[in-house]
Batch of 3 targets.
Target 1
Amino acid sequence: MFFTLLIITLVVAALVSFIAVRAFSSAINSILHRLIDDAIAGAWVRYMKFAIFVVGISGGVRVRSLERYILPQEHFDSAGESRDIPPFELTTERWVLEIYRTIIESLQSIAWMLLVFFIVSLGMYIVVRIFEMRRGTNE
C-alpha cells in the first residue's frame, strides 16, 4: 500500500508540475527572450521548465512525511519513557489528505520558485531598460 501511495503522489506532483509548466511557459519564454536576446534564451527556457518539474516533484513528494506509514513512531508517555507506536494505517481519509497535501505542496514550491524568477527577471528588465535608455541618449 505504501508503494502505491508513493507512486500516486509522484504522479500527482508530476501532473501538477506539467500543468504549471504549460500555464507559465509563454510568460517564461517571452521574459527570457526579452532579457537574453540570443540563442541561449531557448536553453534557459528549457532549464526553467526542468526546474519547475524538479521543484514541483520534490516539494510534492515528501518522503519524510510518508515514512510514518512504514516506520513505527516513537512516543513518550507521561513518565517520559519511550515506546513505539505502530505505523499509521492508510485509510481512505489519509489517502485523500496525502493527495491534497501533494497538490498543495507542489503548487507552493512552484509558486516560490516562480516568484523568485519573476523578481530577478524584473530587476534584470529594469537594468536592461536603463542601458537601452542610456544608449538611446548617447546616439
Target 2
Amino acid sequence: MKEQAAIFKAKSTIKAADKEHRRKINFNIGKYNAVVPQGKQQFMDVALARERAKNIKWKAIETLDKQLENFEAAITKRGAKVIWAEDAQQVLSAIKKICEEKNCKTLVKSKSMVTEEIHLNDFLEKHGIESVETDLGEYIQQLDGEPPYHIVTPAMHKSKEDVAKLFAEKLGTDPRATPEQLTLTARKVLREKYVQAEVGVTGANFIIADIGGIAVTENEGNARLSCSFPKTHIVVAGIEKVIPSITDLGLFWPLLATFGTGQRVTVYNTILTGPKQPNETDGPDNMYVILLDNGRTNILKDSKQRESLYCIRCGACLNACPVYKNIGGHAYAATYSGPIGSVITPHLKDLGEWKHLSYASSLCGNCTEVCAVKINLHELLLENRQEAVEEGNSPFAERIAWKMWKQGMLRRRWMNIAGSKTKNWVVNTLVKGWAIHRGKMVFPKKSFNQMWQEKYGNR
C-alpha cells in the first residue's frame, strides 16, 4: 500500500525543487489567471450561474439511471449503438472488436481524459493499430512519450523552446521554428492521418439525455475531423458526464469555456446525435457510444463523495491549487491530478493505495472557491482522510501519534508543562515523518497562556 505514496513523494520532491519547471507552469497559469476574469464578465451573476449548474448536475446524478436510459433510447433510434462497460478491460475489448471488424490500421483520437484513464493508446499499439492524438497538446505529449500533464492543457509544462526541440528530434523540423511553424507542421502530419484512419475516437464533454446527444467542445476542430472523416466513430464517456436537457448547454458551455480557458465560449461546439442519416451527406457510417463505469458507481453510492461526480473537467481547481503549482501534474502518477484527482482517484482505484493524494493538500479551500459547479473539494479531501482511517488504511504508529496529540491538546496543563525545547524535540526528532519533507518546527518559548497572563493577568 506504500508503493504509490513513495512514488508520489519522490516525484513531488524533485519537482518542488525544479525552479525551471515552476517558472514554466506559473507562467502558463498566470496567462490563465489574466483572462478568466474577462470571461466571467459574460455572466450577470457568476455565483448564481455556478449554483444553477450544480443543481442541474445534482438532478442528473441523483437520477443517473433514468437519464442514461433516456439517452440510450434516443440515440439508438438514430442508428447509434450503445455499449455499457463496467471497467477498462470491457471498453478495450469492445474497441478491439470494432477495429477488427472495420479492418482498422490507423485510428485518430481527439482529446479525451477517459481514454487516458483506460490507457487506450498503449493497448492499440500492442495490437498493431496506430493511434494518433490529434489535439496539438496531446500530440506533443504523445511524441514525447508522456501522459497529459493537465486536464485541459496537456503540455502546460513545456515552453515553446521545448516543443521546437521535440519536433526537431521527432519530425526533423528546424529547432528554431516558431510556434506558428510548429503548428503548421503538426497540421500537415495530422491531416494526412484523418484521411487514412478507418476509425475515429472522441470523448464527450456532456451526454445529453433528452435528445440522445454527445456534446463536444474544443478549440482546434480536431474532434470534428476525428468523428466525421473516418467511417466509424467511437465515443468513450464516463457515465457521470450526463446532463438532463439540451437547454442546459446554454449554461454549461460558457461555464466550461470561462473556467477552463477564460474564453466566453470555445471555438468549436458540436452536438452529435448518431451516424450519418439517409438524407445526410457527411458523417460516419457507424457510431458507437461506450458508457464507462470503472469505479464511478463506487462514488455514486457514497452519499458524501457523490458530489465529486458533478465535475465538468474544466481544470480550474488545478490552476488554483498551491500544491499542483509546485509539483505539477505528473507527480500525482494518476490520470486525474490536482484537487479533483485527489478526491476521485482513491475511489476509482483503491483507497488504501491512493489515500496519500488526499493528504497532498493545504486545505486552503481555493479549489472549492474556483470550482465551476461549486463542489466542496477541500471538504471531500477531508472525507477521504476520514474514510481511510475508518477502513484501517493508516499505520499503527500514525494512529498512536494522533491519539497522543489529541490527549495533549485536550489538556492545556500538559501542553504548558512541556517547554519549547521539549516540544521542538518531540515534533522534529520523535515524530520522524514531519522533518523529512519539511523545515523544522520551532515552538515559541512562552505558551499562549503565559503571554495572556503577562498581558491581562488571571481575568
Target 3
Amino acid sequence: MEILVKRFDPQGRLLLPKELREKLGEEVMIVDLGDRVELLPRRRADLKKFFDSIEVEELKEWEELKKELWAE
C-alpha cells in the first residue's frame, strides 16, 4: 500500500497520478463514508452472465423481467 498526500487546487480538484487513473478507468464512483471517501472503478455490468439464467415463456413487461433477472 502506498500513501500519497495531495492538495486540492483552488477549484476543489484533485490530481490523481497517471498510474491510479489507469487502474481506476475513465469513470469512478465516489463513496462518502462519513470520515473518508473511496474511489471505486465504475465498470459496465456484464449482462451476458444473465443470459439463459431464467426461463421466460413469453416476453413480459420490462420491469417484471428486470425483477426476475435480479432475483437470480
